[in-house]
From TrEMBL:
Keywords: Cytoplasm, Gluconeogenesis, Glycolysis, Isomerase. GO terms for cellular component: cytosol. The gene is pgi. The lineage of its organism: Bacteria, Bacillati, Actinomycetota, Actinomycetes, Micromonosporales. It catalyses: alpha-D-glucose 6-phosphate = beta-D-fructose 6-phosphate. This is Glucose-6-phosphate isomerase. The keyword Cell membrane does not apply.
Length: 540
């Protein structure tokens, strides 16, 4: 059993240091140290990261790096990249990094050259995508495919839809993708309402191919397709493909394994959109764009694998998150992309971060005595500014925030992008430096209003400035957050790669379904009463 991290001298040193940091103000830190920005910036591939507006000193960074040393972060990074079974509760390797290894690399894991496997599937995806994109692949009635409906949930939805939205400027084949995830019948119904079955293709994505939501939607989609195409079962082969690790279940569902794209148990669902799970994205942006994205992921992987911890961006940002979460009492973390294209990025990150690090026992099953995964949330700027930034500026909570911005716009309308990014810079500056009562008085504000206008400042932010949103930089950003999650999970000693907490609810939903039909069954008194009310309102 490993020692409780809070009993180590590195933890104690940080706890003592936190007392000092609670008394500093970023205004003074910047005033006293003109070199602060130079020292507190780092680069990972194209991502320029300024962490100088965080509640840290050089000593904080030194102590956090010492904590990382205590948990052997460097060794664990190497263990992950080597394919050791670091997902202990499921006894699996954790190898999403292998999904983006170049073709000429080699990595043998559990006796299998995974790089060969990865590129075989990428080649299969590329060949298929080219056929669909060029119009060579036609539907049952001979018409080309215009719309791709991705049916999946969790990692089989959030990643692909986030990236499809983010890379809208790179869609170039006239193929529209839509994403259905929810078992709420509204989702599928609304999505299909204006579609023509003859030109629609379904990509059924499920790692396990046993997820109720996905299989239910897929079954309904097949019914819709067959109803629209004269009931000929042969149509399925032209309009349904599957992405899964489970060939038998794909077969059982009635999809020809020739139309199946595989991946492996060493890819976690929330780490999977750069595998075949991203097939819809590849259909939209093409194999070259997809490969550029993989190269972006790989560039940050290499940085994470090789950079010293002092300048290792994902490690530093992960340690900063630990700092706020465990030593300065923060419970949430905002992610604020200044890009409308990244409007699904916070939702994607919620699964990545919270399903990974929402754990309360260590890898060896001991209850933790400290806080783990913080709540991630966010919206694109500037929309958030007009909604919840008030609380970040003047509320009582510490909300560390990542600001993500791009120097070059994907769409340029006069000076709009400059006006947009001026908001990014203004917000991070206002959050750090605020406005004092004296400054506000000097503006002639009435004395009784002054306290309401005081902007305390000293609110921590990290600025991530990227040249432009491209497939490559999107890959870099996602890899950055994947490795931030890894760093935090390593410090907390938890398994960031399982998700047992989602199972019980699924099991109970299955048990309760018959009760909704009026069949007998067990339910707690509150739930039984709710179901009775539901049945009454449904007229049953
Ligand atoms: O891809 P699937 O096997 O259908 O799983 C879809 C999702 O459902 C599960 O409940 C997990 O919580 C997620 O990690 C997973 O991404």
């Amino acid at each position: 059993m490993s020692a409780d991290i809070t009993t180590t001298e590195e933890w104690a040193a940080l706890a003592a240091h936190a007392e000092k940091i609670r008394t500093i103000h970023l205004r003074d830190e910047f005033a006293a140290d003109p070199e602060r920005v130079t020292r507190m910036t780092a680069q990972a591939a194209d991502l320029y990261v300024d962490y100088s507006k965080n509640l840290v000193t050089d000593e904080t960074v030194r102590l956090l790096v010492a904590l990382a040393g205590r948990v052997a972060l460097g060794d664990r990074i190497q263990a992950m990249f080597r394919g050791e079974h670091i997902n202990t509760s499921e006894d699996r390797a954790v190898l999403h990094t292998a999904l983006r290894l170049p073709r000429d690399a080699s990595l043998v894991v559990d006796g299998q050259d995974v790089v060969r496997d990865v590129h075989a599937v990428l080649d299969q995806m590329a060949a298929f995508a080219e056929r669909v994109r060029s119009g060579e692949w036609v539907g049952h009635t001979g018409q080309r495919i215009r719309t791709v409906v991705n049916i999946g949930i969790g990692g089989s939805d959030l990643g692909p839809v986030m990236a499809y939205e983010a890379l809208a400027p790179y869609r170039d084949a006239g193929i529209e993708c839509r994403y259905v995830s929810n078992i709420d019948p509204t989702d599928l119904s609304v999505t299909l309402a204006d579609l023509d079955p003859a030109t629609t293709m379904f990509v059924i994505v499920s790692k396990t191919f046993s997820t109720l939501e996905t299989l239910t939607n897929a079954t309904e989609a097949r019914t819709w397709l067959l109803a629209g195409l004269g009931g000929d079962d042969a149509a399925v082969a032209k309009h349904f493909v599957a992405v899964s690790t489970n060939e038998q279940r794909v077969r059982d569902f009635g999809i020809d394994p020739a139309n199946m794209f595989g991946f492996w148990d060493w890819v976690g669902g929330r780490y999977s959109y750069d595998s075949a799970v991203g097939l819809s994205l590849m259909l939209a942006i093409g194999p070259d764009g997809f490969r550029e994205m993989l190269a972006g992921f790989h560039a940050v992987d290499e940085h994470f694998r090789t950079a010293r911890l002092e300048s290792n961006v994902p490690a530093l940002l992960g340690l900063l998150n630990v700092w706020y979460n465990n030593f300065l009492g923060a419970q949430t973390h905002a992610v604020l992309p200044y890009s409308q294209l990244l409007h699904r990025f916070p939702a994607y990150l919620q699964q990545l971060t919270m399903e990974s690090n929402g754990k309360s026992v260590t890898r060896d099953g001991q209850p933790v005595s400290y806080q783990t995964g913080e709540v991630f949330w966010g919206e694109p700027g500037t929309n958030g500014q007009h909604a919840f930034y008030q609380l970040i500026h003047q509320g009582t909570k510490t909300v560390p925030a990542d600001f993500i911005g791009f120097s070059e716009p994907n769409y340029d309308l006069g000076d709009m992008h400059d006006a947009f990014m001026a908001n990014f810079f203004a917000q991070t500056s206002a959050l750090a430096f605020g406005r004092t009562a004296e400054e506000i008085e000097a503006q002639g504000v009435a004395a009784d209003v002054v306290p309401h206008k005081v902007m305390p400042g000293n609110h921590p932010t990290t600025s991530i400035l990227v040249p432009k949103l491209t497939p490559a930089t999107l890959g870099q950003l996602v890899a950055l957050y994947e490795h931030i999650v890894f760093t935090e999970g390593t410090v907390w000693g938890i398994d960031s790669f399982d998700q047992w907490g989602v199972e019980l609810g699924k099991e109970m939903a299955k048990q309760l379904t018959p009760l909704l039909h009026g069949e007998p069954g067990e339910a707690d008194p509150s739930t039984a009463t709710l179901i009775a009310r539901y049945r009454e309102q449904r007229g049953r």
